[in-house]
């Protein structure tokens, strides 16, 4: 665990404080597919109620991801919400469940709390499962691999040769079946 982003809890009172900071050179080591580009921006409100410390805010960092469709790298901001309740280690129980939008409970010892792991975890969860350079990215040609956003490729695509080609003839088969069934009904009436 890194000893960065430590908060001195002795200076936190019941009146809320808003803290904004920008930290350069902090390697969050988010994921091998994510390149951090620039400082991390933090803005959070912190206050104390008894021995519990409440932290609510946001972490933001610019990253570079690889598009899942066209494999092109693109820059995008990664943003995560923080909702933490820090309790003394003696009061902390691993059974305290955290659900979506519920606070995450963390333990602190003495008068310091290190936010590094919580910020890193929140940003890891904010990484999209299928990053896209743009919502309508057309991807790559399945035959030659050309990025279709750069223009159409020169591959000859024959209709009816893909994996779903059998479905193309389904409507034609139904029309033939319906006409045969209608012919059979006419013959039976005679």
Question: Could you explain the architecture of this structure?
Answer:
18% of the residues lie in helices and 34% in strands. With 190 residues, it is of the alpha+beta class. It has a domain of 121 residues. A five-stranded mixed β-sheet has the order 2-3-4-5-6. Strands 1-7 form a two-stranded antiparallel sheet.
Keyphrases for this structure?
190 residues; 3 helices; five-stranded mixed β-sheet
Report the mean per-residue pLDDT as an integer: 79
Q: What structural category arises from helix and sheet content?
A: alpha+beta
In the predicted model, the low-confidence regions spanning at least 5 consecutive residues are none
The backbone outline, from C-alpha atoms, is: elongated
Strand proportion, as a percent range, falls in: 25-35%
In angstroms, what is the radius of gyration?
A: 29 Å
Classify the helix fraction into a percent range: 10-25%
What topology does this entry show?
Layout: E1 6-8, E2 17-23, E3 35-49, E4 52-66, E5 73-88, E6 104-108, E7 112-114, H1 116-126, H2 165-168, H3 170-189
Parallel strand pairs: 5-6
Antiparallel strand pairs: 1-7, 2-3, 3-4, 4-5
Sum this structure up briefly.
The protein is an alpha+beta fold and 190 residues long.
């Amino acid at each position: 665990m890194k000893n960065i982003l430590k908060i001195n809890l002795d200076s936190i009172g019941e009146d809320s404080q808003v803290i904004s900071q920008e930290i350069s050179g902090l390697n969050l080591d988010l994921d091998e597919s994510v390149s951090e580009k620039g400082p991390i921006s933090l803005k959070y409100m912190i206050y104390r109620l008894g021995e519990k410390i409440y932290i609510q805010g946001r972490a933001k960092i610019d990253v570079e991801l690889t598009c899942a469709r066209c494999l092109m790298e693109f820059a995008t901001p990664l943003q995560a919400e923080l909702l933490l309740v820090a309790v003394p280690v003696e009061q902390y129980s691993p059974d305290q469940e955290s659900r979506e939008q519920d606070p995450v409970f963390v333990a602190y010892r003495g008068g310091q709390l290190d936010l590094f792991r919580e910020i890193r975890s929140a940003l890891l969860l904010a990484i999209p499962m299928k990053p896209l350079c743009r919502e309508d990215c057309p991807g790559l040609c399945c035959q030659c691999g050309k990025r279709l956003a750069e223009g159409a490729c020169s591959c000859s695509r024959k209709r009816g040769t893909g994996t779903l080609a059998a479905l193309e003839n389904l409507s034609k088969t139904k029309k033939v079946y319906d006409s045969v069934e209608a012919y059979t009904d006419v013959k039976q009436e005679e």
